[in-house]
Amino acid sequence: MAEAERIIGTPDTPDAAGNGRERPGEDAAPGERAGSEGTRAPAGGSGSDEAAAAGASGRDEPTAAGPRGKRRIAVLFAVAMFAYALDLISKMIVVAKLEHHPPIEIIGDWLKFEAIRNAGAAFGFGEAFTVIFTMIAAAVIVVIARLARKLYSLPWAIALGLLLGGALGNLTDRIFRAPGVFEGAVVDFIAPKHFAVFNLADSAIVCGGILIVLLSFKGLDPDGTVHKD
């Protein structure tokens, strides 16, 4: 009898096995949940990736602006050095070849090259204030150098470069030429008819100033922003 019950009871084993198979199915359900969580995880990962990308793009903006600002500063100093070199070389030639010699007519009486020592400001004004004009030129150079750190506009870089080169050219004369340090006379040689005699440094300063006025009227700031009234 026990043997018969054992034999009859054996079919329950597959059920038990079936129950055993159901348990893996039940175990699979958490697996599926884990899989779904796994699927959600990449979604969260992609979100974090997007956030990271956004953060990366946010970090890239200053680094992109940095090189742009450095290029503008390079343009400023390149223009300044070019204007300064032209002024310095022209004055050296004038002192060596033209000073104490008759003027050279370029366009008849309308334009001549004539060497003149000017102790005043640009175009011969204010000869009694040589030291003051020297200090003003030095202050202009310092202001331009400080402003260059926030410079992101190419036209402003050119304008400030012209101002800087011209100021350096005349300041060099003030410091190194007679009669003494900070009292030196500037070498002027461009003499239009019915106008004051000037030099290339004066021309660079005037051109830079005119360009700055035009940029201000257009609403363009040195940092590259444009504002309208």
Descriptive notes:
- The protein starts with a helix and ends in an 11-residue tail after the last helix.
- The protein has five helices and three strands; from the N terminus they run H-H-E-E-H-H-E-H.
- It is mostly helical.
- The model is unreliable at 1-8 and 10-64 (pLDDT under 50).
- The chain is globular and about 50 Å long.
- It has helices at 2-9, 12-98, 130-147, 154-176, 200-218; strands at 104-107, 111-118, 186-192.
- It is an enzyme of class 3 (hydrolase).
- Residues 48-57 have a biased composition (Low complexity).
- One of its GO terms (biological process) is proteolysis.
Element string (H = helix, E = strand): HHEEHHEH
The whole-number mean of residue pLDDT values reads 76
Counting helices, strands and paired strands, the structural category is mainly alpha
* Domains, number: 2
Largest sheet: 3 strands, antiparallel
Task: Provide the low-confidence segments as ranges.
Answer: 1-8, 10-64
What fraction, in percent, of the residue positions are helical? 55-70%
- Based on CA atoms alone, the radius of gyration comes out at 40 Å
In DSSP terms (H or I, runs of 4 or more residues), the helix count works out at 5
In percent terms, what proportion of residues is strand?
Answer: 5-15%
How many extended strands?
3
Distance between the termini: 109 Å
Strand order of the largest sheet: 1-2-3
